[in-house]
Amino acid sequence: MRSALRLLLVSFLLTLLGIGYEANATHIRAGEITAKRVSATALTYEIRLTAYFDMQNGEGAANAQNFVQFYVGSNGPIEAPRILPIINIGNNTTQNIYIVRYTFPSAGKFRISFEEDNRNNGILNIGPPPTQNLNFYVSTILEINANFGLNQTPVLLNAPIDLAAVGQRYIHNPNAFDADGDSLAYRLYTPQRGTSNGAGVNLQYVNPNQINAPGKTETGASPATFGMNRLTGDLTWDAPVTKGYYNVAFIVEEWRDGVLIGEIVRDMQIIVEDARNDRPLAQPIPDICVEAGTLINQQIKATDKNGDRLNLTSTGGVYERTLISPELARFTVPQQSAIGTITGQFTWQTSCNHIRLEPYDVLFKVEDAPGTNANPNLFRKLVDMTTLSIKVYGPKPLGLRAVATTDPAGTAYRLNWTSYKCPVPGARVVIYRREGCSDIPVEPCLTGIPAGSGYEEIGSVAVDQTTYLDNNNGDGLRAGISYSYRLVVEFPRPGTNINEPGSLIGGGESVASDEFCLNLPMLAPVITNVTVDSTSETRGVITIKWTKPAASSGLPAQYRLFRAVGQNGSVFTQIATINTNLTPGAADTIFVDRGLNTLANPYNYKLEYYATQGGQLVKMDDIKTASSVRLEQGAAEPNRIRLNWSALVPWDNGNRTHRVYREDKARPGTFNRIAEVTVQGPQTFNYLDDGSDKYAADGTVNTTIVSDSTYCYKVETVGSYNNSQIKPSVLYNFSQILCVSSSDTTKPCPPVLAIDQLNCDSLRAHPEAFCSPTGLTNHLSWTYPQSLDGKDCDPNVSAYRIYYARYEGDTPTLIATVTTPPSPLATTFNHEGLTSFAGCYYVTAVNRFGAESAPSNIVCKDNCPMYVLPNVFTPNADGKNDEFQPYECPAFVQSLEFKAFNRWGAQVFKTNDVNINWNGKTNGGKDLAAGQYYYEVTILFESSKRESTPTTMKGWVQIIR
């Protein structure tokens, strides 16, 4: 009896010990945190932890994990219950999901974190050991911004449960899907452990393929590799060497319009086994790009060289009704557990609601089932996977036409087109125009207007509209120009209605419409030539030509020609009046302008045309000005001369071959063509002469470029209006002759810069001036030195360049070039339209040859921090002084944290709202008693320093009820 009682007691104690061990066992293998906004009015989000539990080493502890705790920043713990049921997803792993709703206090960037004891023991690549003493920690960064709408984080649809095998390639892809259509990118990350209050710190971490390195890849190459594809998210290990547990982590980045708006960390465990089995192979699938409305029907195939039975599955946002609607994709496998080879069929009827900027990624995974063996643990199931990328774009707008119409602005065209096939709410038809007809590449996946095609956006209308009036924004269209039009439909971002999941899922645009090109009537002449015939200080000659207007001959008409100094000169002087009756063939469309200083100056010409109307000469449309071609020497080059030239003209000099001429020293006054330069840009072109003659058709005349020797050049531009109505169709114009020496390129000296500083005391007396800081101005001034380090400075400065950086240490960018020839150069600049005074500047000087000085001294300017709080408020709902707020308005406040305490030091209220807006209640909504309370405010003001120093203010406030 006593022996039996002792045996029963021992059994009972062992049971207790077993229960105690299970309750404290290691159990979390992997996990990540996601968030989704669930309120259109409040900043309320559903925060979800998806955790994967080890049922082999910690089943009891896993099953007992009925809730978890989140931190939002240091705010927490926030308890979240488990959503039942627990899902067994294979490989001794269950998936547990915990959800809580949380309302954020304000917009901003927040880190949501979770940590739980303990990790598995014996993990080979993290430390310090023993790893069972290390907790599991993951975090997610969520940015709440009104510009993002009802944004949500991506979700990771593929569970991290697949085994790896020694000597075989392992691949994992999280199959991330963003319902908002944001761009996703991936990068490896160091696993962390939690410390306190939501903080995390990196573990000691070794790349998995460095354990027992060097290893070999599956194909025998050395060394083994481990990495993650930044674009596709494929995490590949080729191939493990040692059996055991490994922990890795990676980040899924969420990008919108080039801005990083969120990050998710997935920490996962890779279990490497001696599988005694070869992994199956999923056949790669090429990317698909389709027009919305296309039925996709794609076969998926996988094989196994061992002839094992195979199962084929698929995950992706295209199957999720909560993420996409109304038409869901389907994946069917006629025969699961097929032997050796298995096929499946992916079908998806796309629709207008599926158009988006980013592709849809659909993951296909094949898993083998190796045959029964005396030791089945050695015959582990292995997997392979492949991803199908699907881009769904908007259909092409159809039926574009344009007709002339009367308009007070002058020449105008009414555009019409047929109703659009995909009238998605919020989408817009964008109208593009360019001068001259032009083809653009025709490719199935080329959406929008390609960069560099010359089209510019001129307007947009709602997608249900089918007409647009182009009157050049009230200025009228110019005569003599062939105009080309195209349409593109742009689709909105999602998140406008939380009750309509899956609609408007990701922006994007349509393929461009077919071109509609038209010729405007030539009611007024256009300038075709401004060519320099002779270069001289006093006897320079320029010939100007223009076209005849489309008008009947016989009636009196008149041309008036004006000239201004400088390519963009605007002070015009009339130089000729030419009376004509528009007789065909008459020499009335040419004028030779003489007595000019073409050596020093370019010239700009304007033509006015007067026609007879009601017996009187009436001025017709203004004609766009055209300048002479100006040739300049560029920056210094040893034994070479750089030439730059430009012309401000209404025709197109780009995408043409210009001609460069150099004087033959053996025959003074004779110019030999030395090069033909194919140019791309619309205005400024260049050529570097090394002395060789690269154009042989008129004879080869090489020379040697040496210092202090003079070389003379001229260039001939080649352009066109790209309009069949304008003859000649190709326009040739010469520059002046430029004679330069290769030593004429000494850099000028750097200027000395100053900036007006703020009088903070004066500004604080009128803080209302900066309640909505827009249109602020920084005033810069500088001087140019006569000498530097004992050497004279180049006095021939032709321009100053102003550079600006928002923060100290950032690389400044060019924001303006100050030049006002022929009057003296200005030495001041107003940087206008700012919302903050903070920033840094420097200035450089540029000489007539384009050589730029070293930067001036860098000067930085800061704002005046202003934040003043009252000492009393009366939250009695009488509409007067009901909330505790700063006086006037806070100026230049980047962020703040406000805390209020009662007289015993207990915190009663906290907010990150810049305006505080404390209504006399606790954060839980309970009214506080009348009396005195103390506060502490930590403020980050906008500064010229990227990491500004926080300012702390302490004070008291009286609540009166």
Task: Please describe what this structure looks like.
With about 950 residues, the protein is mainly beta. The chain folds into seven domains: about 20-270, no CATH class; about 280-390, Immunoglobulins (Immunoglobulin-like), CATH 2.60.40.10; about 400-520, Immunoglobulin-like, CATH 2.60.40.10; about 525-625, Immunoglobulins (Immunoglobulin-like), CATH 2.60.40; about 655-740, no CATH class; about 750-860, Immunoglobulins (Immunoglobulin-like), CATH 2.60.40.10; about 870-960, Immunoglobulin-like. About 5% of the residues lie in helices and about 45% in strands. Strands 1, 2, 3, 4, 5, 6, 8, 10, 13, 19 and 20 form an eleven-stranded mixed sheet that branches. It has a five-stranded mixed sheet with strand order 22-29-28-24-26, with no helix packed on it. A hairpin with a 2-residue loop joins strand 3 and strand 4 (about 75-90). The longest helix has 22 residues, at about 1-25. The protein is globular, with a radius of gyration of 37 Å. Mean pLDDT is about 85; it is low at about 1-25 and about 495-505.
